[in-house]
Amino acid sequence: MASAKPTDNKNTYSVCTICDIGCQLRAETEDGKLKRMIAHDNPALARNVCYKGTAAAHIHNHVDRLTRPLKRVGERGEDKWEEISYEQAMDEIAERLKKVVDQYGPESMAVSTSGWNTQTTHSMDRRFMNALGTPNYISGVSLCAGNTAAVNKMTYGWFPFADISNSQCIVLFGHNPRKHSWTPIFNMINAARANGAKVIVLDPRVSDQAEVADLHLSLRSGTDAAMCFGWLNVIINEKLYDKDFVAEYTVGFDELCERVNDYPLERVAEITGVDAELIAESARMYATAESACIPWTPITDMQISSTSAIRLQSILRALTGNIDIPGGDVFGGFDPNYIPESKLGNHEMLSAEQKAKQLGSDAHPAYTYRAQEMLSEHTERVYGYAYADIVMGCYMANPSATFRAMATEKPYPVKAFFVLGNNALLSYPNQHQILKGMMNQDLIVAHEIFMTPTAMLADYVLPGDVFSERNHIADNWNWKLGLTVSQKAVEPPAEASSTFQFWHDLAHRMGFADLFPWQTIEDMLDHRLSPSGKTFEQFSNENYMYIQPPEYRKYRQTGFATPSGKVELKSSVLGELGFDPLPYYREGPAVSEDYPYYVFTGVREDAFFQTGQRQVKVLRDRMPSPKLFMHPVDAERQGIIDHDWVKLQTETGEVTAKVLIQDSMKQGHIRVPHGWWYPEMRGEAKLAGAFISSDAVLCPDAPEYLDYEQGIPHFKGFPGRIVKLNEPPAGMSEQVLAG
Amino acid sequence: MRFKEWLGDAKQRLMTNIANRTFKKNPGLLDRLAIRFLRSSIGEVPHDPELDHPEN
Ligand code: SF4
């Protein structure tokens, strides 16, 4: 079952998957090893590279890469292993999974993954799960882009991608694309700015983007929904909306207007802490621009009013006529040349009875089958296929409900946990509950490129491949139309292999061989490209990228993929599910004397993506230790100076880190970096220091902290306090102490 | 209004077609012209030393 040989060194283009943006880079190899990853030779793409991407050789050739399957020999979490063959590992995994399924039912298997990291799964995970009969798929995208996709579909049937480069006004809700984070978005913003675009930044901090913005609104963390109401108030009352579009293509405008009137500017100013005049000025700037876009933002994804805030951003796009136009927010649809993962997942196969068991769908259904299937016939009508799993985020179980079921066996036991390319322990809220859930499993299988705290809890750890070691065509998970070739430059080390291979081989052992006829990734790519009439070899010999020429205002022919066929300002789906069909603002948990600061977590640092790369020296040297950001006034009150060690405490946990005092911080706010652990402490500290500095311990997932419709937590503005430490924590390396 | 829309849309489609020509592995004459057009409008991108790493 040999997979294709690596491509000749010349013209080898690979899509970087170190972060989620997918820059196409060039690989240079020597003696069968990746030597360097460098910028593109096409000038239009040459700036789309950051220093993580050029560190690829340091990551892919790292001495700590997992290369052989490991089987646990000590207690769970003890990090003691024996090497076994791939065949033995897969045989034993299949046997033990069958046992769990026989005893507890298929829904007792849960899968957690990050599609960004695994890339070439081709939805074989969902296909396997649907064949087995389990709906319990969770992913980091439930907190980041995937959930936004699901909520956008409720308003207008698809998740648009902002046409930033051609826009005249760009609105960044806390999003802060920089030269070395979200690099292509950063470049698009710069290109638009060079063409005269205005940029409005709404961010508590004076972020990099805020520094150069035309308008900066320093709103209180977690108040995006209220701010959107402020804008709508101005836009509606000053009649700045697109009247023809509203009349012809929307439903619920009058009810929306009534709701908007509940949020006069003075109230919005009070909630957000931003001057009413500035709110009005920014709303006018957005609404009167020739074209304007509100790009997706990870900030609005993670708030207690997230569903409403996401819907309000959709509503702003619609009311101002900025949907599906050049420079606005554009609907891609399925790529006509490439079979989407949505189809490969085979969601039709899972019975209604099993879908109804999807964890969390009773209380928080927005991105579960329960809500999303209410859109199926409309998606089929407009886009030709019923299941649109945009950004892999539209048919997910709720992570908190899943870990609760793993820990408590309620509403039913979850006893087999498969985790691929995803350091789950540090990636979802309530890390203590995740640990409890993982300790209560009969079978845990991890598929990773490095040993992580999550993988340390597994029974089997399978070594994963990386992007320079596999062929692929990236299609942006149906968010944006375009196919980008990623060529295999080198062979994976020893027994490392892809997640595609993993699901294929497990399926064949579990009796689903007929559903998994593709032997190799290249077979799969040929299948997926079949609508184009080309094989992978032909396609990748001819192009390194192909963008489908855009079609705008498609809704004029098709209507929108919603029950009414229109933009639903008042959501019939949410109404039918028993939620408020109109957006609203809900206040997050209040600060108190005990916990006087607003804490925001989940913040990305340039050197790392999520919880990864802490073991890569050239990246770690750039960011040796975790840093909390505080305003000088707050620091002075606490008697803290730069580089002091502190504990940041909330009701549920504490994070130890150093402090950086920054004028750019908003007073009363503390920013916590995401995903810190210490690979160098492996063998010395519990789970390599996974409970020292990880922000996942801070935010609770009790009901009062969760968004009603999605059940995602309020990562952006929950109460916390700072305690100064007299000494650094024990066991820290010299690099951490010095850095 | 509709004409302005049509013009704006057509421009974007044209730009995408030009971009696609520059993404070819074995460019023909028109593809090479597209690449030349791109280079003249964007210019060469200088190397950024921030992207360099020491050899571990
Ligand atoms: S921004 Fe950097 S890490 Fe992300 S895909 Fe591009 S090169 Fe890779």
TrEMBL record, chain A:
Residues 9-70 form the 4Fe-4S Mo/W bis-MGD-type domain. SMART domains: Molybdop_Fe4S4. Pfam families: Molybdop_Fe4S4 (PF04879), Molybdopterin (PF00384), Molydop_binding (PF01568). Keywords: Iron, Iron-sulfur, Metal-binding. InterPro entries: Asp_de-COase-like_dom_sf (IPR009010), MoPterin_dinucl-bd_dom (IPR006657), Mopterin_OxRdtase (IPR006656), Mopterin_OxRdtase_4Fe-4S_dom (IPR006963), Prok_Mopterin_Oxidored (IPR050612). SUPFAM superfamilies: ADC-like (SSF50692), Formate dehydrogenase/DMSO reductase, domains 1-3 (SSF53706). GO terms for molecular function: iron-sulfur cluster binding; metal ion binding; molybdopterin cofactor binding; oxidoreductase activity. The keyword Iron applies. Belongs to the prokaryotic molybdopterin-containing oxidoreductase family. This is Molybdopterin oxidoreductase. The lineage of its organism: Bacteria, Pseudomonadati, Pseudomonadota, Gammaproteobacteria, Cellvibrionales.
